[in-house]
Amino acid sequence: MLQKAMISEIDIELITLNQAIRDHFAWANKLIEFSLFDDRMDNSFTDPKSHEICAFGHWLRLQLTSSEENTAALLAIEATHEIMHDAMREVIHCIGNPRALREKLNNYFHAQIHFLEATDRYKTELISLRNCYDTLTGLPLRQLLYKDFSRIANLRHLKGSTFYLSLIDIDYFKAVNDTWGHNVGDIILKELGQLLASNVRMVDRCYRFGGEEFIVLQECQNYSDFTAVMLRIMNIVRTHDFIIPGKAIKITVTCGTTTVREGDELQAIIDRADKAMYFGKQNGRNQCRLWSENNMIDIERSATILAR
Ligand SMILES: Nc1nc2c(ncn2[C@@H]2O[C@H](COP(=O)(O)OP(=O)(O)OP(=O)(O)O)[C@@H](O)[C@H]2O)c(=O)[nH]1
């Protein structure tokens, strides 16, 4: 399944894909020029690995090395791209032999259509994925959390690591909207989303769960790693200057967190995190609580004790 941490990554991929397709057409036009004017062919046509040398091939390599999740879709494009280059080389070999050329040219046209169909499919996938992201904060929305969860549950099983789900809710956000207006509320949501996304590790995921609530899914080797991360996030948020027109303001959040246990349904996990968060709200806000059957553990106190 395709995966991106932020909507901007999808946009960048769409922009660069469009550019790569334009580069492909420039390359195809060059082929017509070479054929008509009998110019010297460059290695983006003649090399047996020409599909790796051309500008589109460069784009493809870059995507294949930078993302593991999209590999299947990208490899499907690569296969059609390579076949198209092979077909084009056969066309070149048949120049001067009109009878053979007709068939080779048809093969090339078909290969080109398959290649463009594969890139179209990928583009459609990227665009439908884009609809699962929040346009305000750029973060994945709750429907992606549900999709990601089954993959994460498998990972947990395979790697034996502990996953934590944290529900982060802005304190007194209604007052922010009432005092400074909804647009300022939006500025805060956007900035908080970016702050959270840039302060979790690459392997962790941050979602806009709805309204003024965010969810962070983290994979941690041990409890002290987890408490250290949460302590850091809480401190980053409470000390951050949120720039609104004419001034900078500070906000706090209350966080409820829980471990992902064997066989857990996602809804049950979210309910536990919600209970822990609610406990934090009722006990002064601006804190992070870990759900436990008997008491809701104060994560920041726990992190401080563990760090001694
Ligand atoms: N600006 C803006 N406000 C939103 C958005 N989504 C939800 N809100 C507001 O978030 C506020 C949430 O208010 P409450 O649920 O009362 O919570 P709160 O004021 O943060 O109080 P506590 O959570 O108890 O600390 C409401 O005023 C919603 O209108 C949004 O996308 N943009």
Structure description:
With about 300 residues, this protein is of the alpha+beta class. The chain is about 65% helix and about 15% strand. It is built from 12 helices and 8 strands. The chain has helices spanning about 5-35, 45, 50-55, 55-65, 70-95, 100-130, 140-160, 175-180, 180-200, 225-240, 265-280, 300-305, and strands spanning about 160-170, 205-210, 215-220, 240-245, 245-250, 255-260, 290, 295-300. The strands form 2 sheets. A 6-stranded mixed beta sheet has the order 2-3-1-6-7-8, with helices on both faces. Strand 6, helix 11 (about 265-280) and strand 7 (about 290) form a beta-alpha-beta unit. Helix 8 (about 175-180) crosses helix 9 (about 180-200). It is elongated, with a radius of gyration of 26 Å. The protein starts with 6 loop residues before the first helix and ends with a helix. The relative contact order is 0.09. Bound molecules: guanosine-5'-triphosphate (GTP). Guanosine-5'-triphosphate binds near residues 172, 173, 174, 189 and 285. Guanosine-5'-triphosphate (GTP) binds near residues 174 and 182. GO terms for molecular function: diguanylate cyclase activity. Its EC number is 2.7.7.65.
